[in-house]
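Hey, quick one: can you model this chain's 3D structure?
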Amino acid sequence: MRSAAIALPADLLPADGRFGCGPSKVRPEQVDALVAASRTVLGTSHRQAPVKRLVGAVRAGVAELFDLPDGWEIVLGNGGTTVFWDVATFGLVERRSEHLVFGEFSSKFADACAAAPHLAEPVVVATPPGDHPEPEPHADVDLYALTHNETSTGVAMTLRRPVGTDGALVAVDATSAAGAVPWDPAEVDVYYFAPQKCFAADGGLWIAACSPAAIARIESIAGGVRWRPASLDLGLALTNSRLDQTYNTPAVATLVLLEAQLRWMLELGGLAACAARCRESADHLYGWAESRWWASPFVADPAKRSPVVGTIDLDTTVDAAAVNTALRANGIVDTDSYRKLGRNQLRVGMFPAVDPDDIAALTACLDHLVDHHAEALEP
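Sure thing. Here's the predicted structure for all 379 residues.
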């Protein structure tokens, strides 16, 4: 492509050109922590004290970051959020769930529950991408599945427990929001995520903050007759987590990266400070897009725009694929839109590890491309 030959001025380039929405930018200090762990926990037994202390530090760090009330527990297991959806069909949903669907990832848990032969057909409340629906209480629903931030579309929602749903659990997919978007534990029972976004670690791990009500549900189902594969047994995951271990061997390097990021986030000032850092980046990106004739925020309602995943539509005269090619040729990577959304769009990760100054530099580079290389960016 012609845009691959464009050289951006060096003084415009961000200090770090990684803007992916997962896996996200890993800070150099995390890599240093991984090197430091090379002769202590890497390559050692996950059943021995050094790795168990690492798991314990992760569990304690997550609880501190979210300022969880007494009685909440941090449960973790292998496989990432996709596996947790299967785990939840066996260990969290008693009979029927309701799912708010407003993008690719919020639909996947609904699909998992619909395919589970031991569960009733789930209720699905959907809106087109770019917006989010509201819960619809049903007497026979025992779990409401919300998504804090839809990674595919850049829509975020405020978490509120549905009115009139006493006894039902609220489970929230927080994979791209956890660690950057405030939430109230009183409104939620299970807040689960994988660590490859705000926590700047590798994938392959799921972590769930569970309320006392959620713990009671897990233990009730685990004590019943429902068959559960051992690797998807939430009761086994809970038992092992209480021992600061996982049921089967974890990726210890992921835990090292995650623990180092947690320490940095807490030293930064906790969830409030991380949220402020992301909001600074988001305010700049959306304000910039609104002031350009050839760009606009995809999410129309400012209150629903994500502070961590910015989706920016481009005018039809500016080909997003050509823009992304030009950026990548200059070391600015992973600004592509979500593939299944099919829009002429940029998608920008603004997680805590991403410096707000680099977001400003990215927009300066975009301005330069359109102002000086418009012909190379035409469809």
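One thing worth noting: The two ends are 11 Å apart (CA to CA).
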